Amino acid sequence: MKKIGVIVGSLRKESFSKKLALNVMELFSDNFKTDLIEIGHLPFYNQDLDVEGNVDKAYTAFREQVKQYDGFLFVTPEYNRSLPAVLKNALDIGSRPKVDNVWDNKPAAIISQSPGGLAGFGANHHLRQTLTAINMPVVQHPEAYIGNVASLLDQAGKLSNDDSRAFLQTFVDAFEVLIKQVKTGQ
């Protein structure tokens, strides 16, 4: 069974990203186990806190957690045409020092969302740039930009739009294929 870590780029208790992530987690096949990975507790990356023999305990625990997963789903809002600082911070912590990059060659998928029509396009592409820099193969097609997200969720936070659910299933299926390709080298 493959383990997928799900990382949400919003810390807000009722975040649309988290609600969307929980819905998408249900779409994975039985060969995959998904877990939410919390990132809000991580201190900002500071190389002074990452010195051999004196590494911040939160950094070490997070890196060890990331190592347990076969791939990662990132679900994020867009902040000022880019990804949220908390998400970038988690990526930086896991990728440092570069010779011990815990993200290396782990498949990734990105869903960006927004309550407006732009659907987090800037966040999605900035996140893609970062994932490329830390050597994470990313689902290329379909790309998942979810606009007007509030209208797709019911009062309980469940996806209420069948077309969106079908699209997200296609997205998850493509991610599962990427994971198999990366792990087998095909």
Q: How is the secondary structure organized here?
A:
Layout: E1 2-8, H1 16-25, E2 32-37, E3 50-51, E4 54-55, H2 57-67, E5 71-76, H3 85-95, E6 108-113, H4 121-133, E7 144-146, H5 162-184
Parallel strand pairs: 1-2, 1-5, 5-6, 6-7
Antiparallel strand pairs: 3-4
Primary descriptors:
5 helices, alpha/beta, 5-stranded parallel beta sheet, 7 strands, two-stranded antiparallel sheet, globular, 186 residues, Rossmann fold
What does this structure look like?
Strands 2-1-5-6-7 form a five-stranded parallel sheet, sandwiched between helices. Strands 3-4 form a two-stranded antiparallel sheet. Helices cover 37% and strands 17% of the residues. It has helices spanning 16-25, 57-67, 85-95, 121-133, 162-184; strands at residues 2-8, 32-37, 50-51, 54-55, 71-76, 108-113, 144-146. The chain has one domain (2-184): 3-Layer(aba) Sandwich (Rossmann fold), CATH 3.40.50.360. The chain is globular and about 50 Å long. With 186 residues, it is α/β, with parallel strands linked by helices.
Question: What Rg, in angstroms, do the CA atoms define?
Answer: 16 Å
Please give the number of β-strands: 7
Derived structural class:
alpha/beta
CATH architecture verdict: 3-Layer(aba) Sandwich
Q: What coarse outline follows from CA principal-axis ratios?
A: globular
Percent range for helical residues?
Answer: 25-40%
CATH-level-4 superfamily name: Flavodoxin domain
Share of residues in strands: 15-25%
- Note the run of SSEs as H and E: EHEEEHEHEHEH
Arithmetic mean pLDDT: 96
CATH class, named: Alpha Beta
Biggest sheet strand order reads 2-1-5-6-7
Number of helices: 5
The major pleated sheet works out as: 5 strands, parallel
C-alpha end-to-end distance: 19 Å
